[in-house]
Amino acid sequence: MIARAHWNYMGLSIGIVGLPNVGKSTLFNALSSAKAEAANYPFCTIEPNVGVVMVPDPRLQALDAVVHAARIVPATIDFVDIAGLVRGAHKGEGLGNQFLAHIREVDAVMQVARCFDDANVVHVENRVDPVADIDTVTMELCLKDLETVNKRADRARKMIKSNNPVEKLATEMCEALAKHLDDGKPARSYRLPDHAEAPVIMREMHLLTDKPAFYIANVDEGSLGKLADNKHYQALKRRADSEGAPIVAICAALEAQIAELDPADRPEFLASAGLTEPGLNTVVRTGFDLLGLITFLTAGKTEIRAWTVKKGSKAPQAAAAIHTDFEKGFIKAEVIWWEDFVKLGGEARARETGKMGIEGKEYVVRDGDVMHFKFNV
Predict the structure, then answer these.
(1) Which of 203, 206, 198, 202 is nearest to 165 (CA)?
(2) Cα(first)–Cα(last) distance of the chain, in Å?
(3) Which member of 29, 90, 163, 370 lies 3.0 to 4.6 Å from 144 by CB, making a disulfide possible if both were Cys?
(4) Cα 337–Cα 343–Cα 348 angle in degrees, nearest 5
(5) Which of 325, 335, 326 minimizes the C-alpha distance to 365?
(6) CA 246/CA 40 separation, integer angstroms
(7) Which value, in Å, is the radius of gyration of the alpha carbons in the chain?
(8) Per-residue H/E/C for 146-174
(9) How confident is the model at residue 260, as a pLDDT?
(10) Cα separation, 149 vs 80, whole angstroms
(11) Residue 161 to residue 171: CA distance in whole angstroms
(12) What confidence tens digit (pLDDT) does each residue in 73-123 have?
């Protein structure tokens, strides 16, 4: 099996997807300072709202205790609040064409499902069944992808007459993938043929269900700390586990309250709810990890900053995150592990004790490296 690559670039956007009234906009409002309308009826969010969300990283504060920088700049992810999908979305039902187009533009998908009972909050299908909700959304995305795959198959069949081996492979792939999607299985779970061109064919179709995905279980406050007693959460967890997908349980309504508090008042409120940090921190970290991202750090008097790169990036690629000239004229990177930087009190002592490494172009950046680049252009 050949591993597929989802992007040729660093992806930084996650779409919040789900049926109407499962808590998507409430969750978005808690995540972002942007305020999407959260109303108890479908389609209160027509245009996608985009919020730039900081990635929680206590390492930045630890570095600042040493450096005392003028400012701290964390890594960020864009979260996109996409209006609720309904049955028939792939045919345009409920503004489905708009919504599906918005999903196509994001790099990963976060499916929100309602895992609480409340007669005062309507459900578009008059029942609380998170697995059925996930199935509905997934099937709509699969059916839209099926249209794309069938079009690609038609094109491949026309070109196969020219004895093109790639188009022969495309035909075989699309026929198998069409059956896979028709069964309601996302493209990301389709096993690619062991052929160098297979990932290319898959990637060029830009399938909605080939995007990495994770699940948010929106539970009631009473379920926090005792999720074993929430039958809706347990059902959704079994589904997520069967797919190998991450799942995060939060109470969106509670998170919205936390987000509105003055930062000084949050620790006491969190403690009263039995939490050590907002659940949204886990959501953001999960999304960041799902996108295959890590951060390296720079630390100086002017600023401490977290820079985002793909896992597996080498030193010149990391340098390019700061400026393309840094990559073009890359000479070397001075690297200190962040814990050594903090424990030793900064760069000078790290250099003296041999904890600063001098690395070249083949060095693979670690999440948490404090880096300084030498370049010449």
Answers:
(1) 198
(2) 42
(3) 90
(4) 75
(5) 335
(6) 28
(7) 23
(8) HHHHHHHHHHHHHHHHHCCHHHHHHHHHH
(9) 86
(10) 26
(11) 12
(12) 999 888 888 876 666 555 555 444 666 778 888 999 999 999 998 777 656
CA atoms within 13 A on the CB side of 359: 24
For residue 286, pLDDT over 90 is answered with yes
**Residue 310 phi, psi dihedral angles, 5° rounding:** -75, 145
DSSP tag of 1: -
Contact between residue 51 and residue 33 where contact means Cβ atoms under 8 Å apart: yes
Reduced 3-state DSSP string for 20-64 = CCCCHHHHHHHHCCCCCCCCCCCCCCCCCEEEEEECCCHHHHHHH
DSSP track, 281-346: HHHHHHHHHHTTEEEEEEE-SS-EEEEEEETT-BHHHHHHHH-HHHHHTEEEEEEEEHHHHHHHTS
Mean pLDDT calculated for residue range 141-156:
93
Q: Confidence class of residue 193 from pLDDT cuts 50, 70 and 90? A: very high
C-alpha to C-alpha distance for 362 and 55, rounded to whole angstroms: 28
pTM for the model stands at 0.82
Q: Which residue has the higher pLDDT, 20 or 284?
A: 284
- Give the model confidence (pLDDT) of 221-236 as tens digits: 999 889 999 999 999 9
